[in-house]
Amino acid sequence: MISVIIPTFNEAAVIQETLRRAAAALRSAGEEFEIVVVDDSSADGTAERVESLAAEVPVLVLRRPGRLGLATAVLDGGATARGDIWAVMDADLQHPPEVLAPLAKAMREGADLAIGSRYVPGGGTSDWTWVRRMISRTATHMAATVLPLNLASVGDPMSGLFMIRKSALENAHLNPLGYKILLEIIAKAHYRKLVEVPYVFQEREKGASKLGARQYLEYLQHLLRLAVGTGQLWSWIRYGVVALAGAAIDIALFVLLVKKAVWRPAPALLLAIEVALLNNFVWSETFTFRSTRIPAFHSAVWRRLARYEGICIPGAALNCVVTASWMVLDGGVVSAAAAGVVAGGALNLLVNIPAIWRTWAGRK
Ligand SMILES: Nc1nc2c(ncn2[C@@H]2O[C@H](COP(=O)(O)OP(=O)(O)O)[C@@H](O)[C@H]2O)c(=O)[nH]1
Ligand SMILES: [Mg+2]
Known about the structure:
364 residues, alpha/beta, Spore Coat Polysaccharide Biosynthesis Protein SpsA, Chain A, seven-stranded mixed β-sheet, 12 helices, 7 strands, 10% strand, elongated, binds guanosine-5'-diphosphate, binds magnesium ion
């Protein structure tokens, strides 16, 4: 049975339509289901509206005292739920309830975790302005940068619409903070098959968003807590140490070749960058990602190397441009090399981490 868990905080304007449409979607998909609304003492009568629909839809309300947060609402709802599958969705119709049907289908076809995804082909965000798109993408990328071992190959880890097999949550010790329960589940649950089902996130037509400054702050805290809790902080520290060593090698070799061996700067820089990349690659293979390598890559080292070098081309190119410009403008060989390394490193750090880590580590 599917237990649909819907957290609410002042959603009286929409909750009945949400419940009707969710029930209709699951009925026509032939699924057995119940709905658990977890209401945090809404002052607008949300809970009463839910209860007045109980004759029409199999639904019950769990009332919590005061606003205790979305993620914990899902866990409390789950503790009450009787189904072997939890479905989680928002009350405000931004998640079209009809998507429950394809999510349920994915679960029937063997998924342990099915995510309603805005960022796979067929998914989207309706009429968002580019600013909103940017904020959402940046938050998603940030999560994948902090937690690449879990999130680098998930399109929409920030989704609030998903289904998870309850058995996958045994011994997962979920301890979420704030809004993003799915981050916690992806990082900690024991699932084998993850499927993303595309959907288009709708505009909110009634009620108001409950997302505020506090929730953004909690998000950052939650990311850090997960980085520590999943041990990825240690991978990150190993990765950082290796990257710093590579940077030192790049600068030292370039300066040595130009000053002592009197090479021309262009070939000296290319060689220095390549040696640094090889250094980073070897340490990544033998040290940083030794225990996390995905089996598919085990056989062919040269494939990983080719992939890694390919991903590093933009950073290397930026390094070259900055080093060359600096030498023309300023003339200092050491400072030019350092500026190039910093620029290339910053590009990798801000944009490329999930792609680089995917060379060694996919989904757990
Ligand atoms: N129980 C509970 N539900 C919440 C809380 N905060 C938000 N919600 C619900 O979580 C869902 C998503 O919230 P919403 O404000 O639409 O977030 P947004 O879509 O990111 O703007 C809605 O159904 C809200 O009513 C909370 O603290 N407790
Ligand atoms: Mg919403």
